[in-house]
């Protein structure tokens, strides 16, 4: 029976043992072949042989990790604050707020930061990127561009004082925030702001496109505002006849009504005092030929009267 155990022991501690990827020489001192040999503990012996083979240069981790077998492969498990870079464990520390540190395929350091923190590379820092506090509110994502904080706000939010603030005008308008944080809605054509959102506001005026009627909401009620020179009618913006309702033109000028406005034109024989100015604010003066015509008319009238008197006088004397 002792011979059986002895031969079994020789079989287990043979000169080579197979480790995935390589055959490693293992030297085992056999016990003396006498009658004092005891049965071998099979479980402990096989584990010791494998561990002995694993540490003999199967993978080089650079002194900051251990070589381990995972899924029939030998890999490096790096120590804390180290990460695998070009098959070796290199220093990789992203600061006390980091959730992890690694290197990408280009060897660039990458930090895994928790919420409200982001990777930031400080100028002239030998440590490189670290996780620093970076908060944009509950509706935004924060990042660092050098020393500048950047906020990427969710839809319906706008950046205000370093945080993402709610700013919604509905699907028919664009929302912006003033310097004081006041919301402003720029609604699409045919829409107006009511209760903080852009809603349809159509006056159904036939002249809407031509004259640009403006539809707004006042206390939740639709209000149609016509452009200058027009007044709200039953179905459209009606033109105001300024020539009829008032006397907008100066003396010696004719008033001509036009859609939304009017025009002043000097009467025949008159001209604007200053042609470069709007006639509505200027006056009309007589032209030189009109003055000459009047003077000639006066002279002719006097001449005719004198001749008539002369003829009548000679008739009476004869």
Automatic annotation (TrEMBL):
The keyword RNA-binding does not apply. Residues 239-276 form the EGF-like domain. Residues 1-24 form the signal peptide. The chain crosses the membrane at residues 292-312. The keyword Transmembrane applies. SMART domains: EGF (SM00181), EGF_CA (SM00179). Keywords: Disulfide bond, EGF-like domain, Membrane, Repeat, Signal, Transmembrane, Transmembrane helix. This is EGF-like domain-containing protein. GO terms for molecular function: calcium ion binding. Gene3D superfamilies: Laminin. Pfam families: EGF_CA. It comes from the Eukaryota. The lineage of its organism: Eukaryota, Metazoa, Ecdysozoa, Arthropoda, Chelicerata.
């Amino acid at each position: 029976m002792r011979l059986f155990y002895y031969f079994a022991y020789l079989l287990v501690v043979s000169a080579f043992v197979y480790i995935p990827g390589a055959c490693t020489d293992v030297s085992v001192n056999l016990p003396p072949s006498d009658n004092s040999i005891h049965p071998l503990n099979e479980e402990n012996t096989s584990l010791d042989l494998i561990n002995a083979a694993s540490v003999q240069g199967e993978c080089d981790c650079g002194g900051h990790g251990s070589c381990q077998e995972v899924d029939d492969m030998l890999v490096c498990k790096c120590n804390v604050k180290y990460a695998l870079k070009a098959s070796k464990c290199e220093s990789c520390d992203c600061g006390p707020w980091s959730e992890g540190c690694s290197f990408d395929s280009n060897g660039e350091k990458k930090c895994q930061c928790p919420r409200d923190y982001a990777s930031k590379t400080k100028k002239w820092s030998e440590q490189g990127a670290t996780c620093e506090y970076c908060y944009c509110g509950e509706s935004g994502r924060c990042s660092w561009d050098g020393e500048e904080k950047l906020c990427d706000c969710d839809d319906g939010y706008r950046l205000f004082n370093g945080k993402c603030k709610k700013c919604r005008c509905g699907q028919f308008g664009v929302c912006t925030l003033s310097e004081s944080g006041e919301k402003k809605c720029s609604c699409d054509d045919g829409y107006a702001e009511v209760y903080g959102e852009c809603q349809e506001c159509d006056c159904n005026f036939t002249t809407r496109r031509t004259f640009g009627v403006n539809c707004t909401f006042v206390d939740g009620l639709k209000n149609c505002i016509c452009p200058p020179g027009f007044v709200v009618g039953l179905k459209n913006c009606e033109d105001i006849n300024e020539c009829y309702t008032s006397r907008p033109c100066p003396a010696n000028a004719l008033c001509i009504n036009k859609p939304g406005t009017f025009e002043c034109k000097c009467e025949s024989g008159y001209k604007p005092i200053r042609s470069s100015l709007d006639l509505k604010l200027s006056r009309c003066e007589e032209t030189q030929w009109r003055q000459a015509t009047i003077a000639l008319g006066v002279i002719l009238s006097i001449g005719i009267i004198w001749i008539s008197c002369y003829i009548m006088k000679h008739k009476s004397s004869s």
